[in-house]
Amino acid sequence: MSVTLRWSGALALVLAALGSPVYGQNGGIRPPMMMPGPAATGIGGGVGLLGNTVAPAIAQLAGGAGANPYALSTVGSFNPYMGPAASMGMGDGGYGMSTYPGGYGGMGNLPYGTVIPGGYAGALFGEGYMLQGFASTVRAAGEYEKDIMKARIIREQARQMELDTARKALQYQWWYENQMLHSASRRRDAEMALELDRARKDPPEAEIFSGNALNVLRRSINGGGKLSRGPNVPLDEDRLKHVNLSGGTTPGNIGMLKDAYKVDWKPEWPEALLSESLQDVRATLTKNLQSAVNTLRDKAELTRATRNDIKAAYDALLKALNETDYDLTPSQSIDARQFMNQLASAIKALQDPKAINYFNNTWNAKGKNVAELLEHMNREGLNFAPAAPGDQPAYRALYQALRAFEAGIQTAQR
């Protein structure tokens, strides 16, 4: 490529010397372009038809007067492309065949009359470097466009990631609403169906005595429509007296205290709490509980002093049980814990502002049959409470009655 550029430059200078017109960018004719260098003062003999026109131009390129442009001597001064530097003993340029040092790499002169140290290797001007600079400009412009396009791509990727994040947020919201919220409702429905199936198929007695199985059957019956559609399942009035109901704002079970208004009433103390050291505590608690029940039966409110005394006696019993629990057998410990839980539930029931309803026949189980009992409970907002000691037979009978009534309601629906 470098050889082609050198010959192209030489040809351009020759044409310029001949006075050939060169067209500019705007279509106009500009004067011939002359390369810097010494003016030609003479020329040797010409050869051929173009000798009179080409030879002077070559002589001007050579930069010396009287030089033979066609000499191929090894003497530097006769090189047709030698400049004045040859007479000073410097190496010739790229087109000489001189044996002098220089040539393409030494302290040579350019082939167009301009002396630059280093020959072509050190030249700072010329068409080669102009093209190299133009190529660098084009390359820089291309790199700039590439950087711009890369920036646009990165910005577009960022926008796409923002849209993807927003889409995933919407998907998560949809998933949460459909899987979590709706699934919670579906799980609750499934649990209720499982509880109902369990309550219909002879559940453990613990679930019957706790009132849970009874409340499950009651809920199914109320969801089956009017109670009058069910069969007539009679109830024993004496057994209903041992069925405990709960209502009001404070959870509790008054069952243990239903007979506390009687003068000779005493709680059925478990064996673990019958020690002589607790005799005074038991007596104080029994007295306070009887006083509270009689106060409510008289439609009066409990005093703060009575409530505090009851709570202090209960805490003393619980502390004594915790201290002696390691000395008790498993059965003794279980009986004592169950008693304390029932006692705590009864004390909670006494704290209810409407606790008087437990003793004025408002929150008592009553009805000649299952339909009347459930109508009373629905009207007063009551639920079945756990059984107190001695109430277990009544709860077994009531379970069988509710189970038969619920089956009749389901049959009527079909």
How would you explain this protein's 3D organization?
The protein is mostly helical and 414 residues long. The chain has two domains: 2-125, no CATH class; 194-413, no CATH class. Helices cover 52% and strands 2% of the residues. The chain has a two-stranded antiparallel sheet. Strands 3-4 form a two-stranded antiparallel ribbon. A hairpin with a 5-residue loop joins strand 1 (22-23) and strand 2 (29-30). Helix 3 packs across helix 5 (212-222), helix 5 packs parallel to helix 11 and helix 8 runs antiparallel to helix 9 (330-350). The longest helix is centred in the middle third of the chain and has 74 residues, at 127-200.
Q: Roughly what fraction of the amino acids lie in strands?
A: under 5%
Please count the helical segments: 11
Shape: elongated
Look at the structure and give the mean pLDDT.
74
Helix content: 40-55%
The total tally of domains equals 2
The H/E string reads: HEEHHHHHEHHHHEH
- As laid out across the biggest beta sheet, the strand order is 1-2
User: How far apart are the termini?
Assistant: 102 Å
| Radius of gyration, in angstroms, nearest whole number | 59 Å
**Biggest sheet record:** 2 strands, antiparallel
